[in-house]
Design a protein that fits this description.
Strands 3-2-1-4-5 form a five-stranded parallel sheet, with helices on both faces. It contains seven helices and five strands, in the order βααβααβααββα. By secondary structure, the chain is of the alpha/beta class.
């Protein structure tokens, strides 16, 4: 990230939202694709947690070839910025002491990256909310009413 100031919403998407688009998973595709489009057109600053990239690659590689995995990775990187995972993020996630450490890491990465929203289909998995954790349809409703 550069140090530039922006009034755009910074939004971290859970890997499930990303996979809904890349794998055309119904019934979630429509809302996920709308959020992806907001990032792709620069209307929001779209982000994905760094560790989600390795998981994405693993899932694609497991289902097919390395070429398909790299293609999915490059599609993602054309649209989304990467929220870093460093020692501070890991320590913050550990201090949360959530049952699911992966969710805690994602949350801490979003906080460190300055995100206002973490979009997921499972907001109940994020018990301490220093930022808004929201489902795709609810995020789109907020976006539509931001006027």
């Amino acid at each position: 990230m550069t140090g530039e100031t922006t009034n755009k919403w910074r939004v971290l998407l859970d890997l499930n939202i990303i996979l809904d688009v890349l794998m055309s998973r119904e019934p979630h595709l429509t809302n996920a694709a709308r959020i992806w489009a907001l990032a792709e057109t620069g209307q929001v600053d779209g982000m994905v947690a760094g560790h989600s990239l390795t998981t994405l690659f693993y899932l694609y590689r497991k289902q097919g070839s390395p070429e398909k995995a790299y293609h999915a990775l490059h599609q993602l990187l054309r649209v989304f910025q990467v929220a870093g995972i460093d020692q501070a993020v890991i320590e913050q996630a550990s201090a949360l002491a959530w049952r699911d450490f992966e969710d805690a890491v994602q949350f801490a990465a979003a906080v460190q990256a300055g995100c206002q929203y973490l979009v997921t289909r499972n907001p109940g998995d994020f018990p301490n909310q220093d930022l808004t954790v929201i489902q795709p349809a609810d995020f789109l409703a907020l976006w539509a009413g931001r006027g």
